Amino acid sequence: MISFTRKSGIAAIIAVFVFTMVFVCTDDLQASSPVAIVIDGNRLEMNENTGLPVIIDERTYVPLRVISENLGAQVDWISDTQQVIIYTKAKSNSYPVPANWDGGVQIVIDGQPLTIPSGYGQAYISKLDRVMLPLRAVGEALGCEVKWVSDTSTVLINAKTDEIENPVDDVDNSDNTPNLVDNQLLNDLAQFSTNLKLSDGSVINSSALANMDASNFSAEQLNNFRVYLDQLNKYPKVINLPSGETIRISDLSIMGPSILSAAQIQDWLDNETPRIQAKMAASGREFVPFADLAELYIRIGEEYGIRGDIAFFQAVKETNYFQFTGQVTPAQNNYCGLWATGSPLTGQESGNGADPRYVIFEPGLHGATFVSPEAGVEAHIQHLYAYATKSPLPAGKVIIDPRFSLVSRGIAPNWQQLNARWAVPGTTYGQSIIFDYWCNALNR
Question: Residue 239's beta-bridge partner residues?
Answer without folding.
Answer: 247
